[in-house]
Predict the structure of Pur operon repressor.
Amino acid sequence: MKKLKRSARLVELTQFLLARPHTLIPLTTFAERYGAAKSSISEDLAIIKEVFEEEGMGELQTLAGAAGGVKYIPRVSEERALDIIHKVCGKLEEPGRILPGGYLYMSDLLGQPHLVNEIGDIFATIFGGKNIDVVMTVETKGIPIAYATGAKLNLPVVLVRRDHQVTEGSAVSINYVSGSHKSIHTMTLSRRAMKEKSRVLIVDDFMKAGGTVRGMIDLLAEFNAEVAGVGVLLDSGSVDSEERLFEDYVSLVTLETVDAKNRTVGVKPGNYFEK
Amino acid sequence: MKKLKRSARLVELTQFLLARPHTLIPLTTFAERYGAAKSSISEDLAIIKEVFEEEGMGELQTLAGAAGGVKYIPRVSEERALDIIHKVCGKLEEPGRILPGGYLYMSDLLGQPHLVNEIGDIFATIFGGKNIDVVMTVETKGIPIAYATGAKLNLPVVLVRRDHQVTEGSAVSINYVSGSHKSIHTMTLSRRAMKEKSRVLIVDDFMKAGGTVRGMIDLLAEFNAEVAGVGVLLDSGSVDSEERLFEDYVSLVTLETVDAKNRTVGVKPGNYFEK
């Protein structure tokens, strides 16, 4: 136990809460940790709560009673989310991103941990109230987004592999049709990676017709698990609705046009921002 | 501009600094942001600095002068690092992790974002002073560790792929011999992923003889880039030094024995903790 002044306690409490999102912390933990009365801790938390709310950083939920405590729920205001996404859109529209075949280079953006964490903050805001057990993605480019989301939701991440790896133990494999090429691929998930009946948030970097997401949903059925939500950073607006293999998802950015000849890209904020 | 009381300013400043590690922030930024005198901000920062140091969370560097400001350098004390690693060792020694072929299942541990972030904190502590431009890893399991490290060092992450992907543009491929199987594999890195002469921190989840790391170093040579450090979560202690393809690396955990018959695993803290 250490005695701290209010000013030091505020710094300590702030970092403690930020490091433990979606975790219920009993007030006695703090009272013992700082050698302070619970009433003082409550006053500290009221100050932090006000700043977090004012800054649009999220909510500090206080639960009364014996099983009570405080829980930090990170949230990004829609205004800040839109700022982040406008920044991403601006980057995506930079010339020189179009690759042969009309593909879009975005590994530089996905290689910025700070930006990826901001994207995770937005997904955590969108899916924070959905009673989720685990975040799932398929290798490779969705992985950092899934971890950023999982970190903010205090949830584990499960990784679907393309091949069955010796380091994963017994696994379930399924075939799926990837909408972009109409070709058949395999994805596998380790038997021990997921409990039966888990509620799963699927996250990925890009979705066109939705074949990969559809594959992950089929895989979930093998585990008697269910989809609690689907979030993709970028979706393609050029897909006909009858071509779409999956409808109920949230996108943060929509790719409207790729003009390979003039090397221009048109993007707009995704369906999350549609009213 | 908003006027804040000291107590609210401390909360705000703490979260602002924690969200921007290894970033120089001029005092005028805060003075303007909070409508406070620079002298008040300096007093606030002194309080935060003391708490951060007391908690073993890192350092608040103050740089005087016109180009001056404050920079938060996250650091984990060796004591806390060892606590984290003992926790990891305990988990790795749990029965039931040994897979056919003597492989160790650790995807459940690597699937915990909170733990992965703690591992990133340790790598950021080890390599924080090394003048690094970029963190590099090869898919798949090292990716979350690389991002956790990059986030804390405020550095981009570059991802080496096993295959050449259409979404990466022109790429450089090399062949390498994986020490575990003595078999030949390919790894590729997008031409535009890395600037010439970058100083690179290589991070991975596991290293046996070091073939994969050796491959990444060979790949760096193609970009006229150089290795600034190599960090792996787990290395294998059962490799002869003449078999080892690479010596100068830091490990956090060392796998000493895998007894596939009795299904037991022996691990100890890695070479970072050796005096």
Notes: Chain B has two domains: 6-74, 78-273. The first helix of chain B runs from residue 6 to 18.
